């Protein structure tokens, strides 16, 4: 996977065209991450802003759509390849203005791109 592809949904993550993932539950292999607050695409860097509730002390996290392994619109569920620990260790998301900062988004992309590859057929 190239760093650029971390910002695009992979082929196995089929979504409804124009479908809004807001409110979908985000699930890692080791548990629930939170719920999608919104999807954004700034500078061609599509990502999800995920409200983690109390899991990360009420913080939101930014997750590039390239780590999505599946989307179930009926169940309103998005599965991701990385673990909760890996998501928690990503560059911290503090303010909405960071989604408009290409430097911050680049750091996030490099972090997720550097994670060990996952076999999407193994859950």
UniProtKB/TrEMBL annotation:
InterPro entries reported for this sequence: Bac_photo_RC_H_C, PRC_barrel-like_sf
Identify this protein by name.
PRC-barrel domain containing protein
């Amino acid at each position: 996977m190239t760093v650029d592809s971390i910002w695009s949904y992979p082929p196995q993550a089929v979504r409804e065209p124009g479908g809004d993932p807001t409110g979908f539950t985000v699930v890692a292999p080791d548990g629930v991450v939170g719920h999608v607050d919104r999807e954004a695409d700034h500078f061609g860097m599509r990502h999800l802003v995920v409200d983690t509730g109390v899991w990360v002390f009420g913080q939101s996290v930014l997750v590039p759509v390239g780590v999505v392994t599946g989307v179930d619109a009926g169940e309103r569920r998005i599965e991701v390849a990385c673990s909760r620990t890996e998501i928690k260790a990503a560059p911290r998301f503090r303010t909405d203005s960071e989604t408009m900062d290409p430097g911050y988004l680049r750091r996030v992309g490099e972090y997720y791109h550097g994670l060990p590859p996952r076999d999407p057929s193994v859950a």
